[in-house]
Amino acid sequence: MAGLRLGPLLRYADGSSATVWVEASRPCTAEVRCADGAAGTARTFQVAGHHYALVPVEGLTPGTATAYDVLLDGTRVWPLPDSPFPPSAIHTPDADGTVRVAFGSCRWAAPPADGHDPVGPDALDTLASRIARDPEAERPDVLLLLGDQVYADEVSDATRRWLSARRDLSEPPGSEVADYEEYTRLYYESWLDPEIRWLLSTVPSCMIFDDHDLIDDWNTSASWLADMRETPWWRERLLSGLMSYWVHQHLGNLSPAELAADPLYSAVRDTPDGTDELRAFACKADADPASVRWSYRRDFGRVRLLMVDSRAARVLDEQHRAMLDPGEADWLRTEALSDRGSYDHLLIGTSLPWLLPHLVHDAESWDAALCQGERGARWAEFGEKLRRAADLEHWAAFPNSFEELAGLIAEVGSGEAAPASVLVLSGDVHHAYVAEPKWRTGGPTSRVLQLTCSPVHNSVPAYIRVGFRFGWSAVARGLGRRFARHGRCAEPSVTWRKTGGPWFGNQLMTLTLRGRSARLRLEQARADGTLRTVEESPLTSP
User: Fold this and answer.
1) Quick check: is 328 in a domain?
2) For 473-494, how does the pLDDT look when each residue is reduced to its tens digit (9 = 90+)?
3) What pLDDT digit, counting tens, does each position of 213-251 carry?
4) Positions of E strands within 209-325
5) Phi, psi angles (nearest 5°) of residue 525
6) CATH number, domain containing residue 527
7) Of the residues 68, 185, 339, 375, which has the maximum number of CB atoms within 10 A of its CB?
8) Domain annotation covers residue 174
9) What's the pTM value of the predicted model, to 2 decimals?
């Protein structure tokens, strides 16, 4: 009899359809049955000895909530017997057009040792507990996970022991994951957490990777990549990371129509074992990153989300560095500008913040200039060492891309069809803040904000707190200008100021979007198992 190994995850949901992801213990037919009669089935596909299905559910009614069961070969496997949680349900969008978007990043999923969590209470666990206590109360319509859903390079003690039983950890890559099977261990550890498992079964989710999903500083520079390719273990790590990301995260980002038109998804499903097809795809993504698109668009009524790949889509040639390759940049521009009058809010999801503390921004721009040879070969060598040591790889480290995004936002936010807001949603930097840009000339009429929220569950060392607080200060701004002058850096087309934060802790931001109004709430997980609101404010008026 087939068993449920992982899931279910409710991924896509609109007014009439949804997708539910599961992993089964053997080949079988997965079925979702809803209390209101909506249903769907899918045969599992196989990758590396694992069996997965993404079940399309049709016949949902707009503006309703319906509980669902999961069956494998006709046997009910979800809800679990004696589950303490309410039934998992699919909620279709509210009739009044309200959209609630919760987001964050950086969830280290190591289980607490002896009941003590070394990095503090988990914001997603706490959100799950709150929803479970009152399933009819307000909840997110979608959860955006903005990177580092798993940590391939920082595993828990339990996973380290599991790895040591498989192979010799004195050989590279040591206690980091090495192959597809080891990646599946990370997803089991993260998504079998009872609260997380239930939360992801009942709140739709959109995901994008960041560096730790593969390795710290992934695609920092061309020389970094060349060094990694010299190691005996990197290729398998990369291919396995991309394959597991496609299976566990990327597929669920796509709508049923996009899945039906996806040739790789069809090829993997149509063969008894899709491992070779998926591995060939990962090899192509490694050899020619521009041939693959991980970015995607989702529309939630009159809210448009553009989730941008700011890791794999990079151009790393030092003289032509770009956060997005030309095809990716064209995609972002096209999706942002198409049918502008059809949305009231544009959300640009990028794991890495566009606007940073001023000192950090100037240091990254300065370092990018050094690495390009602005101050000669010796400074370029120093710049590369500093870039790797200090993680100087955000949008500011790609000055042309920073300016292109600023220009696109200004264009989107101008004219009669301008949305009420353009909001850049990011994580990565292990604290939260709100920053508002101002264009030196012209500029949009839409409200534009950088909203950064991280981590969901990770440590925040004291030096990070001190460094980022200082980075926003007037003294730091003056120091940053000296860096910029030394690097002969062009003045950015926007200035910006911090309007909220910095806040430190395990936390989530939630946007409530209704018509042309937008409201922001920041909540932090507390030791008593609750989420405490530390900031709530309107962003736009109706």
Assistant:
1) yes
2) 999 999 999 999 999 999 999 9
3) 999 999 999 999 999 999 999 999 999 999 999 999 999
4) 296-300, 303-308
5) -75, 135
6) 3.60.21
7) 68
8) no
9) 0.97
